[in-house]
Every structure is written in structure tokens, then in C-alpha cells.
Automatic annotation (TrEMBL):
The chain crosses the membrane at residues 64-88, 94-119, 131-153, 165-186, 198-216, 240-257, 278-307, 327-345, 377-399, 405-423, 444-467, 473-493. The keyword Nucleus does not apply. Keywords: Membrane, Transmembrane, Transmembrane helix. Gene3D superfamilies: Hydantoin permease. Residues 1-32 are annotated as: Disordered. The keyword Membrane applies. This is Allantoin permease. Signal peptide: none annotated. It comes from the Bacteria. It comes from Streptomyces asiaticus subsp. ignotus.
């Protein structure tokens, strides 16, 4: 491959065949498109803009699930839970957390299963689940904003720990928390899997120890916590307005399913032999994250309550201070370094995931807008730069308002995708499979995209109080309800005709596909890819991979604008051929 981002040497649109491979496996002619070295290295690139082939999915269901769950070690849950309960009181706060967790769990089930089944990330699933090829660029931005908002939040928590333990100034701490993740994220899924596995014992001990200490040293604390009325005068009883507002804050985490999907796409194919482990792993690593997340929110609120008198409200909302106070009875002067170690490990575990997922999302966005792809790793720096700017602006101080606003957009997106998977596909309002390739999709599908835009617009207007106090408090419920109703309604009104621009004769319904892992040689980059990653291209007069299709700025979308109804004649696919990229050398064992 060349160091150029892409090079198209023949005359644009010339319907020539790809170079035939020699016995040594190299094409006899130079490929039309060459990728920059980092973009061509799938051990780092991790098939960031395309289908994850079966030849690459060498991890066991257990390993994929444990890696995905390692990414939810974040302590933002502690801060969010404490903020909700301090603002709205115990009863309304806990009800908010549990309600949000239920919604996140239910919407996450179909998305997790789709990502694991089809080997696709959240952006590619969104394309085929009612948004269209360009319609999902907006959700790429929504998802990217989730990753840098929460990177900034988690980085702020780590910087607070560094400041308290080592007296590092916060601005310097923000920079250090940003730089420390780069070498790990740069190396992709293999490195992330190792980091999550190696740090898991430390994290589990650090997570459980404060609660064990308090169970012995302050056994009556839970009873007192249950009657806590908050710090803002909300009272310990139930209040509908506080419940609605608190649920909105907790629902800001709904886009976390996207980060889980970035791991779930590497789940091996489900077989009769691994069916039970596969189903359990997908459930645990997909929507199951929120079970742990909700427990952490409640636990974080409890620790902050116990530490409130000793450290004050401001520091009680910073996870490092309650950790120290809880550990002091047993660890004494060692409590500070022990708590700081736990916080740093936790934040590294989540922020490598935030940075990794953000790089995928930005790659998806810019590849469609610019038709160029220099490689996933370059977008790591863009995502981290934005996160660092947010940290320096002290976004931690505006936590509730920021997350409450974001949740209105995030839940409209996730609910629309879930509605397509759970309602539209079973009812025949949309295709039974997920189509993600540019060659077969309309630019925008009003079913999902329209549902999200309408639902989020109405809910944001409500969030700013235009429709009154009650609508403001329940704006996220409005977003969720509208998206769930509008997606199937719009699909029905449009007859589902905006899901596919033309039929997929390569691996779509009705195609004769004896082996889904069979490969075609891409006529542009002359690399072999499995059938789900291949489209038939009339301009190239043969097979093209999904990424070359996305990056082609000169084809004029001939296949979509004037379909002849006749598929392009292609040679028979190769069964059992290698796929460039392959499993990560030194990565986790498939037998784990």
C-alpha cells in the first residue's frame, strides 16, 4: 500500500477489472486505490469503517464480553449518581436512576444483538436501521460528542485524584490524563483487551473495599441515606418533577451502548456449540453494562452522602474525596494513595474506550463528508483535543445541565434505532437484515432520521421550558416516546422504500450465499474481503469493498441514481481465502 490516502490512477469511471493476482498473491497491476500505512494496518485500524470479518473475530465470547465490561469502570457514575441524589433527594433520585437503567437496558438489547450478529459498529447499524447513508453522519457527531464529553468528565475526575494525591495543578493533570491513553488507543483492540484484563483485579478490589469498610465501621449509614432529602431542599419524599429531571440526567448515558458495540462487533459467529455463552456474553456486555452502572450510581451517591459532613458538598461530588473518607478507618494515611490508584486505574480503563470509540466515530463522519480516510488513529488526536478543551473550561461544574441537554438527543437516536430493529423489521416495514454499504442505501431515510430529528427537536424545546415545568422535567420521556412511535409510522407512510436504493445481489435476501466468509477481490484496492463487505459496482465493473465504495468521489453514485435492475457480473467468490488484516498478533486467545 502507498502512503497516500488514496490514489485513483485509471480514468475516473473506467469499467476495468481488478488486476489478477499472481501465484505469490500480488496483483499484476497497481491498484487504483492505496491507503496510508496506518489506514491499511488492520491490527491498529480494527476495520474501523467496515464490517468486522469472521477471519478477524478470533476472540471468544467471554473475552469480548470481559473487555467490553472492563470499559465501564468509569467513576462518572459515582459523580452522576451523587449529583442526582444531592439535587432531588433519595427517593426521587433512586427512582430516576432505576427508571433510566430500565430504559437503557431494554433499548440496548436489540442493538447489542444486531452489532454482534452482523459484525458492525453503532454507526453502520444506524445506517441500515432507518437513517440512510448520509443520515447517520449526524448520529456520528452525536456519538462523537458523547465520547469527548465523557472523556472530559472522566479526565476531570482523574485530574482531581492527581491533584489531591500528588499536588499536580489541575490544568497539568488534565493534560496528563489526555496524553496517557494515546499509546494504548493507538494500537487498537488487542492493546485495549490486554489493558482491561490486567487492570481488572485492582479495579474490583478498589470498587468493593470502601463499601466493605463502611459495612463494618458505619452499619447504620444506609438507613440514614434512605431518609436523605438532598442538599437543595428537595426532601426525602417522592417528587414527580425531580424524578423527571433526574431521569433525564441518568439517561445521558444511553449512548454508552455505542461503546459496547465497538467491542461486540468482534463477537464470533453464534453456533450450536457456543449459543448459550454467546447469548449470555452479548446480554452482559451489551445492555448488561447498565446493571453495574446503576449500582455504581447508587453506590457513588451513598459514599458521597457518608462523606458530606467531612468534606462538604463540592468535594463530596468528586469521587476521590468520598473514597478517601470511606477507606480512612482501615487504611489511615494509606487511604489517599490507595484511593488515588483506584481512581487512576478506573479512569484509564474507561478513557481508552472513550478515545477509541471517538476515533471510530470521527472516521465514519469524515470518510463520508470528505471521501478520504487517513486512518482511525489520526482522529484520536481530534477527539482528545476537544475533550481537553472541555476539561480546561471546567465542564464538571455544569454537569447536570450539560448531561440533561445531551440526553434529549441521545435517547431520540437510540430509541429510533431500537424501534426499527424491534418493530419495523418484524412487521416487514424495513428489510430483515442490516444493509450498511453506500451502494445500496439512499442518502437519507426519513423513517429513523426523521423520527430522531422531530423527537429531539420537540424534546429540546420542552427541555428549555417552552411547554411548561412538567414537559421540561419529562423532556427525555417525550424524546423516547416520539422516536418509538414516529420511526414505524414514517416507515409505514413511506412504504419502507427509503431503506434500500436497490437490491443487494451479493449477500442480500435472495442471494445464493453458500459461505458468508467467501471473499471477493476489491477492484479498487485489490484486497480480499468477505461477502458482507462487498458491493457490486457498475463503474468498476466488478466487486468493490465497502470502504473503497465510501471513498469514491468520482463514481457519481451511478449504481443508486440509475439502477438497471441487473447485477454486475462478477467472478465466483473465493472460499477459504485469507482476508487482509487477520487476527491481532499477540492478542487474546480464541480459547479464553
Amino acid at each position: 500500500m502507498t502512503d497516500a490516502v488514496d490514489t485513483v490512477t485509471p480514468e475516473a469511471g473506467a469499467p476495468t477489472q481488478a488486476g489478477e493476482p499472481t501465484q505469490a498473491g500480488a496483483p499484476t497491476t497497481a491498484p487504483r486505490r492505496g491507503y496510508a500505512r496506518l489506514a491499511a494496518d488492520e491490527s491498529r485500524e480494527d476495520y474501523s469503517l467496515r464490517y468486522a470479518p469472521h477471519s478477524y473475530r478470533r476472540w471468544s465470547p467471554t473475552m469480548v464480553a470481559s473487555t467490553a465490561l472492563g470499559g465501564i469502570a468509569y467513576l462518572a457514575d459515582f459523580a452522576i449518581g451523587a449529583s442526582i441524589v444531592f439535587t432531588y433527594g433519595f427517593t426521587s433520585g433512586i427512582a430516576s436512576i432505576l427508571t433510566a437503567a430500565t430504559i437503557i437496558f431494554l433499548t440496548g438489547i436489540p442493538i447489542a444483538r444486531a452489532c454482534a450478529t452482523y459484525g458492525l459498529d453503532m454507526d453502520l447499524i444506524t445506517r441500515g436501521a432507518g437513517f440512510g447513508y448520509f443520515g447517520s453522519t449526524l448520529t456520528s457527531l452525536i456519538y462523537a460528542s458523547f465520547t469527548f464529553i465523557f472523556f472530559a468528565l472522566e479526565g476531570s475526575i482523574m485530574a482531581q485524584a492527581m491533584h489531591q494525591a500528588l499536588h499536580i495543578p489541575l490544568p497539568v493533570g488534565y493534560l496528563l490524563t489526555t496524553l496517557i491513553v494515546i499509546p494504548i488507543v493507538f494500537r487498537g483492540m488487542g492493546a485495549l483487551a490486554k489493558v482491561q484484563a490486567w487492570t481488572q483485579p485492582i479495579w474490583l478490589i478498589g470498587l468493593a473495599l470502601p463499601f466493605v469498610v463502611l459495612a463494618f465501621e458505619a452499619p447504620d449509614s444506609w438507613g440514614a441515606f434512605a431518609s436523605f432529602g438532598g442538599t437543595e431542599g428537595a426532601g426525602s419524599g417522592f417528587d414527580w418533577i425531580g424524578y423527571g429531571l433526574g431521569t433525564g440526567v441518568a439517561l445521558s448515558l444511553i449512548a454508552q451502548i455505542g461503546e459496547q458495540a465497538d467491542y461486540l462487533r468482534f463477537m464470533p459467529a453464534k453456533t450450536d456449540e457456543n449459543r448459550r455463552r454467546w447469548n449470555l456474553a452479548v446480554l452482559a456486555a451489551g445492555p448488561g453494562w447498565v446493571v453495574i452502572g446503576a449500582a455504581k450510581q447508587i453506590g457513588g451517591a451513598f459514599l458521597a452522602f457518608v462523606a458530606l459532613d467531612a468534606v462538604g458538598k463540592t468535594h463530596a461530588l468528586e469521587p476521590i474525596a468520598p473514597q478517601i473518607e470511606a477507606l480512612k478507618p482501615w487504611l489511615g494515611s494509606v487511604a489517599l494513595p490507595a484511593a488515588a490508584l483506584f481512581v487512576v486505574v478506573s479512569q484509564i480503563k474507561i478513557n481508552v474506550t472513550n478515545a477509541y470509540s471517538g476515533s471510530l466515530s470521527w472516521s465514519n463522519f469524515f470518510s463520508r463528508v470528505t471521501h478520504r480516510h487517513p486512518g482511525r488513529v489520526w482522529y484520536i488526536f481530534l477527539n482528545l483535543a476537544i475533550a481537553l478543551a472541555l476539561m480546561e473550561m471546567n465542564m464538571f461544574a455544569a454537569l447536570n445541565k450539560l448531561l440533561g441537554f445531551y440526553s434529549n438527543v441521545g435517547i431520540a437516536w437510540i430509541a429510533a434505532v431500537a424501534a426499527d430493529l424491534v418493530i419495523n423489521k418484524p412487521l416487514g416495514l424495513s428489510p430483515k437484515y442490516i444493509e450498511f454499504k453506500r451502494a445500496y442505501l439512499h442518502p437519507v431515510n426519513p423513517a429513523g432520521f426523521g423520527a430522531m430529528v422531530i423527537a429531539s427537536t420537540v424534546s429540546i424545546v420542552a427541555f428549555f421550558g417552552v411547554f411548561g415545568e412538567v414537559a421540561e422535567a419529562f423532556s427525555t420521556f417525550i424524546a423516547c416516546g416520539l422516536a418509538l412511535v414516529l420511526c414505524p409510522l414514517l416507515a409505514w407512510l413511506t412504504g419502507g422504500r427509503y431503506y434500500l436504493a436497490r437490491k443487494n445481489p451479493v449477500n442480500g435476501p435472495g442471494a445464493d450465499v453458500p459461505d458468508i466468509t467467501a471473499t471477493h477481490l476489491c477492484a479498487s484496492c485489490e484486497t480480499a474481503y468477505e461477502l458482507p463487505d462487498i458491493a457490486d459496482c457498475p463503474v468498476r465493473a466488478g466487486a468493490v469493498c465497502s470502504l473503497c465504495c465510501s471513498l469514491d468521489a468520482e463514481c457519481g453514485d451511478v449504481c443508486r441514481k440509475a439502477p438497471t435492475g441487473e447485477p454486475v457480473l462478477m467472478p465466483l467468490p473465493t472460499v477459504g481465502g485469507p482476508v487482509v488484516g487477520g487476527p491481532v498478533v499477540g492478542g487474546p486467545s480464541a480459547s479464553t
